[in-house]
Amino acid sequence: PAFGLFIFTIARDPLRIIILIAGAFFWLVSLLLSSLIWFIAVKASDPQDERLQKGLLIFGVMFSVLLQEAFRFLYYKLLRKAIEGLVALSEDGCSPISIQQMAYVAGVGFGLMSGAFSMVNLLADALGPGTVGIHGDSQLYFLTSAFMTMVLIFLHTFWGILFFHGCEHRRWWEIAAVVIMHLTVSGSSFCNPLYVGSLVPSYLLMAAAAAWAYLLSGGSAQNLRRFLLCKC
């Protein structure tokens, strides 16, 4: 999905490509910082204490989500400054790209890097040793992981639109909603290997975030209703 979003909506515009790469870089930095903190916490704790290690894993996931959203806010502030510079340099006093377009491209950048790391971890597991499901575990690991990667890419795209809109109009409850949805989706992964417990809530939240982002981007509620009812 990220490849399709990039080809059809971003690839032809050099400015959008720059914004996407910068967004992916911001997500990567947030992941590196959260991974470093989690690694230090694990090394400083007792590795034999399973309850503590599980607690540290939950802490690491939640902290990573909060750090990602903090970097999304920093990226918004950076792009806001960039728009002011573009307006000052343009002859007609208009920016060549709107904040809504920046929000979309930045969201795709976050989702692209998130999906890339998810696939790298998946491919690393595929190398072995052993075979998935050989001890009675679910054999749907790779399939559900692919679906989870896809939903995260789309969610980051929609979250980018919602988050930037909340920052632009000072609607802090929209920002809080994005953080809560991100925490919910990440937290649902602890339901695995009961994959229904993570996939179903994630896809429901994706549908809600997609509809919300569509309306905030100027879409018509009537058109959305006709689409949901499959009416031409």
TrEMBL record:
Belongs to the APH-1 family. Component of the gamma-secretase complex. Potential subunit of the gamma-secretase complex, an endoprotease complex that catalyzes the intramembrane cleavage of integral proteins such as Notch receptors. Coiled coil: none annotated. PANTHER family: GAMMA-SECRETASE SUBUNIT APH-1. GO terms for biological process: Notch signaling pathway; protein processing. This is Gamma-secretase subunit APH-1. It is found in: Membrane. GO terms for cellular component: gamma-secretase complex. Its main location: membrane. It is a multi-pass membrane protein. Keywords: Membrane, Notch signaling pathway, Transmembrane, Transmembrane helix. The chain crosses the membrane at residues 17-41, 56-75, 102-120, 140-163, 175-196, 202-221.
